[in-house]
Amino acid sequence: MTSAPATPADQVTVRVPAKVNVQLAVGPPRPDGFHDLANVFLAVGLYDEITATRAEGAERLELTCSGPDASLVPLDDSNLAARAATRLAAHHNLRPDVRLHISKDIPVAGGMAGGSADAAGALLACDELWGTATPREELLAICAELGSDVPFPLVGGAALGEGRGERLTPLPVGGTFHWVFATADGGLATPAVYREFDRLTGGRAPEPAPSAHLLAALADGDVTALAATLANDLQPAALSLRPSLRDTLDAGTGAGALAALVSGSGPTCAFLAADADAAELIAKALAASGTCRTARVAASPAPGAEVLR
Ligand SMILES: C[C@@](CO)(OP(=O)(O)O)[C@H](O)COP(=O)(O)OP(=O)(O)OC[C@H]1O[C@@H](n2ccc(N)nc2=O)[C@H](O)[C@@H]1O
Ligand SMILES: Nc1ncnc2c1ncn2[C@@H]1O[C@H](COP(=O)(O)OP(=O)(O)O)[C@@H](O)[C@H]1O
Predict the structure, then answer these.
(1) For atom 2 of ligand 2, which residue has the closest CA?
(2) Which of 5, 25, 67, 264 has its CA 20 to 30 A from that of 39?
(3) CA angle 36, 118, 246 (to 5 degrees)
(4) Ligand 2 atom 1: the closest Cα is on which residue?
(5) Could you read off the pLDDT of 28-48 as tens digits, one per residue?
(6) Atom of ligand 2 nearest to the CA of 109
């Protein structure tokens, strides 16, 4: 007996992770305004879900968003998920007749690359919905056009991002790391944080390089060694723009975190815990400290964007 031919799905949902930068080494500004980076991305188990639904004959792409931070997400053409779907349609000479829904759990403008995650998720969801089977290399190239951070959530796990962060080399991770993420009221704009970095460094930062100790700590799954090597060159700039983050970092280390740092351009603060139980205790203490909006636990590494069946 032969089975019926598969019919294309009318709806596809993709789950896609947030990131923390366990090392973010930033060089001087380039002529194009970007900065060369040694950006060690680690995917963490906080996820957005992107659902793409067939909308044949629709005048234009439709976009909705749900979740506690939904009101902060732009629903116009500037939304990175919408831009991703439009870009993939153009790549295949298709009309972007699709309805996208973002179920948002990643903090918005928090330095956890939620918008980038949505773009990567939308690309994968539309590729599956339209049956376009875009080769991985082409998907990654489209991601890199959309933003420096967009290729990573497609891949997940851990990776070194070079250039402006878009050129990825996967990294081995030898264990599970437990984190607490303290979100803040109000975001920080990434370009403003890079500008403040340039002001603080006088535009003369050294060329960035990955730390061999940090890569070894990741590969060994050694939480103590990782805690000793976490580094974010954008942290002084984020603290300069938002001095109250110092209280958040101190509250987490006071509650037993092995290390604390600003996640990427901030203002979310990341705390590395010895294990899952310690992470729960640190999250409770942070929530009670009055120094953050929410405190969430998450484990890493997390997988990259994946279709949920
Ligand atoms: C800082 C990081 C760390 O992973 O992320 P967040 O913490 O904001 O999530 C990234 O570098 C953010 O990447 P992403 O948000 O994709 O940046 P893009 O859209 O490519 O660029 C936005 C703006 O950020 C600045 N930018 C970004 C990347 C880079 N290597 N150098 C830069 O100077 C530029 O001002 C650029 O115009
Ligand atoms: N799908 C999206 N989700 C969240 N923000 C988005 C999205 N698309 C565009 N944006 C815009 O990108 C800005 C940065 O958002 P986000 O990616 O969450 O933070 P960060 O760059 O700090 O990691 C937001 O303030 C918002 O205006």
Answers:
(1) 115
(2) 67
(3) 60
(4) 115
(5) 999 999 999 999 999 999 999
(6) 19
**Residue 170 preceded by cis peptide, ω within 30:** no
Q: Do domains 11-171 and 177-300 have the same CATH topology?
A: no
Residue 41: CB atoms within 10 Å: 28
Query: What is the Cα–Cα distance from 182 to 269, expressed in whole angstroms?
Result: 5
Q: Residue 4: its pLDDT value, please?
A: 42
Rounded-to-integer distance, Cα 131 and Cα 3, Å: 19
* Residue 1 clears pLDDT 70, i.e. is over it: no
Residue 242 tokens, joined: 């938002």
Determine whether domain 11-171 maps to CATH 3.30.230.10.
yes
Q: Is the CB of 37 under 6 A from ligand 1?
A: yes
Annotated binding residue 117:
yes
Q: From 83, 87, 149, give the residue whose CB has the most ligand 1 atoms within 8 Å, as the site to mutate.
A: 149
Q: Quick one: which ligand is closest to 146's CA?
A: 1
Distance 190 CA to ligand 1 centre (A): 6
Tell me how far apart the alpha carbons of residues 306 and 125 are, in angstroms, rounded to a whole number. Answer: 9
CA distances from 290 to 112, 247, 268 (A): 21, 9, 14
Q: Which of 110, 51, 128 is nearest to 268 (CA)?
A: 110
Backbone dihedral region for residue 205 (phi beyond 0: left; psi -120 to 50: alpha; all else: beta): beta
Judge residue 121's burial from the number of C-beta atoms within 10 Å of its C-beta, 0-12 exposed, 13-18 middle, 19 or more buried: buried
Q: Is the pLDDT of residue 272 over 80?
A: yes
Q: CATH classification of 177-300 is 3.30.70.890, yes or no?
A: yes
Pocket-forming residues, ligand 2, beta carbon under 6 Å = 73-74, 78-81, 102, 108-116, 118, 187, 190, 265
Q: Domain locations in the chain?
A: 11-171, 177-300
Residue bearing the CA closest to ligand 1, atom 26? 34
